[in-house]
Amino acid sequence: MSMFWKPGTEKPQLLDDEEGGVLFLSSSQSSSSSSRYGYASMGKQRLPVHKYRTEILYLVETHATTIIVGETGSGKTTQIPQYLKEAGWADGGRAIACTQPRRLAVQAVASRVAEEMGVKLGDEVGYTIRFEDITNTSVTMIKFLTDGVLLREMMDDPLLTKYSVIMVDEAHERSISTDILLGLLKKIQRRRPDLRLIISSATIDAKSISAFFQPSKRHRGLEGQGLSPRKEPAILSVEGRGFDVRIHYVEEPIADYVRASVSTVMLIHEQEPPGDILVFLTGQDDIDAAAQLITEEARTVVKNSSGLIVLPLYSGISRAEQELVFSPTPRGKRKVVISTNIAETSVTLEGVVYVVDSGFSKQRFYNPIPDIENLVVAPISKASARQRAGRAGRVRPGKCYRLYTEEYFVNEMSAEGIPEIQRSILVSCVIQLKALGIDNILGFDWPASPSPDAMIRALEVLYSLGVLDSDAKLTSPVGFQVAEIPLDPMVSKIILSSNQLGCSEEIITIAAVLSVQSIWFSSRGAQKELDEAKLRFAAAEGDHVTFLNVYKGFLQSGKSSQWCHKNFINYQAMKKVMEIREQLRKTAKKLGMVLKSCDNDMEVVRKAITTGFFANACRLEAYSHNGMYKTLRGSQEVFIHPSSVLFRVNPKWVLYYSLVSTDRRYMRNVITIDPSWLTEIAPHFYHHQGPNPATH
Ligand code: CDP
Ligand code: MG
C-alpha cells in the first residue's frame, strides 16, 4: 500500500493543536534523559507531581474535594496514594482507595506501587477487580480497584466507611461507573465530612467537575470553620514534562487502517532512529491481525527485522504478556505495542517515541428506540487524538502519525467524546441504583443526565425480567438476588432461573465463559485450523452449548494446557473461567441455591438462557439468502457473526448475547430457541408484538 504523509501545518505558539501542527504538551522541557529512554532517571522525585506534594496534601487536608489535572505519566496514580499514606491518611484504620475504569490498569498500577514501596502485592498495597481480590483487610492501606467494584462495595457499606480518602482517577474517561460514583460520592460527602475525595484526570475539563461538586446553597454555611473542610472544590494543575510531538497526517483518506498502520510501523522502523512505537487500534481482532502482519512483514520484507518486538495490549492478555509490555526494551531492539485506547491515558509506557493513531476506538452506542446496543468501531474525538499524540513525547521529542487527513481532524472530528452513560443500555445502572435505595433515578444528581428514553427502556426490561415490580421497586427475592450477583442483570437472571430449571451447574459455567473475553485462541494465520478445532466442540444448539462441550473436554483432559493448545483454546482464559465459576458457585450458594446439573438436557439450558435474554430474540427473514435476521422487538437487521458455530447454519429462531457492528450488525454468541418460549417466559415484553411470534 502506498501512503503519502504530510506534516501538520506548523504553528509553534499553539498550546493546543486545534488546527494541527506541532503539539506543545508543555513548555518546560527537560533534556536530562541521559540514560537510554530515561528509565533509570525516572525516579519518584523526578515525576512532575513530586513538586506539588506539599500542596496536594494541604488541599486534601483542607478541602472535601480536590480536583487534580495532570498530563498522563506525571505520577498522579502511582504517587498521590503514596503521599496520602505517608501523611497518615491510612493510620486510623481506614484505607486509601484509588479507582480506575479499567481492570488492566488497576493491576498494572497496583503492582507498580507495591514494587516502589517494596511491599508484597496484597499486603499494604492491594487491588480488587471483579472476581479477583488481592487485598488483606487488616493490613491493606492503599487499595486500587475498578470504579465498578467500589460501587458494588456500597451495597454492603453505603457510606464507604472503610476509606478515608477516595481518589476517582481517570475521571475524564467518564465511564458509566465513574459517573454513577461521582453522583453517589457527592451524597456521601454530606453524611461524612471526614471523607476526602480526589478527582484526577488527564484533560482540562476540571471546570465542569468542579461545578458539579459545588455545594448547593442549602448545604453551604459551615465551611472552613472548625474541623470541617471547605466544601468548594480545590483545583490543582500539575504541569507536565512532555516533549514536543510533531504530527503527520495522511494526504488522502485511507481505506484499511489495519494495513495502513502496519505499513506505517514498517516505515518508521526502516527510516527512523531508535524508539518504541505505540499503535492505537480498536480491539483484540484488529490488534491480533496487525501483530500478525507486522511479524510476517518483519520476517520477509525488512532487512533489519530482527530488532522488532511486537506486543499486543488489550484487556484479555495474560499477566506475563502485560509484564513484557511494561518492561524496558532490550538494547538494540524496538518495541511495537499495539493497543486499544487503554494506552491513551490509563497506563504509561516508557520509551515510546512514535505513535500511530488509527483515529478509531471501540465504543458502545445505544439507541433506545430500536433498543439496540452496539459495540462499534467509531471515530475518536479531538481530545483523544491529542492524548494519543502526547504518548510520543514521554522521553524525548516524538512523532505522531495520524491515519486520517488534517482536514478530517480539523473539520470532522468532534471536540470531546460523549460520556458513556449517554450511549449505553442502562439496565445495570438502574438496578445498582435501586439496590442502593435510590428510587428516583431520573431525579438523581447526574454529572451528565442519561436519556429518558434509555431509562424507560431499562425499566421496562427490568420489569419483564421480574427484577422490578410495577412501582419500579426491586422485587423480593428475585430483584435483590439479581442485584447481588456481580454480573449483567440478564446473566444474573439466568443463574437464578437455572435453580428452578435444575441446570445451575451448566448455566454457571456458561456465565463464567461469557465473563471472559474469548476462550478461543485467536490466530490470524491459522483461521482454518481454528474453525476445524471449533467443529470438534460445535453443538447444533449454538455457542453456549458449545462452551459446555469445551468445558467438559477441558476437565477430561485434566485441565491440560497441551490439550488447550492442540484445540485452539486459550488456556489462560480457561483458568480464569474456572476461577470465576468457583466464585459464582459461592455466590449462588449464599443466595440459597442448590447447585444441580441437568446432565444432557440442553433444552432446559436454552430455556434458562431465554429467561434472561428474551429481549434479544431474532428471526431469520423468510426469503433471506444471505442469512439476514430481524430482531423481534425492533425489526433491526442482524447477522450471525462468523465466529459463531451457527454461522452459515442459520436456524430460524435465535437469541444472541451481544451485538458488534462493523460493516453490519453481528450477533455474538447465539443459541437456537423455540419461539413459544418467548411468550411463555416474557409475556409482558412480547404482548404488544402484534401476532404471537409462535404463529409465524
Ligand atoms: O497517573 P499518571 O498518568 O499521572 O502517571 P503514573 O501512572 O503514576 O505514572 C508515573 C510513572 O510511573 C511513569 O513514569 C510510568 O512510566 C511509571 N509506571 C510504570 O513504569 N509502570 C506502571 N505499571 C505504572 C507506572
Ligand atoms: Mg494515571
Automatic annotation (TrEMBL):
Catalytic activity annotation: ATP + H2O = ADP + phosphate + H(+)
EC number: 3.6.4.13
Domain of life: Eukaryota
Protein keywords: ATP-binding, Helicase, Hydrolase, Nucleotide-binding
Helicase ATP-binding domain span: 57-222
SMART domains documented for this protein: DEXDc, HA2, HELICc
Enzyme class, broadest EC rank: hydrolase
Residue ranges occupied by any Helicase C-terminal domain in the UniProt entry: 261-437
Protein name (database record): RNA helicase
Organism: Tripterygium wilfordii (Thunder God vine)
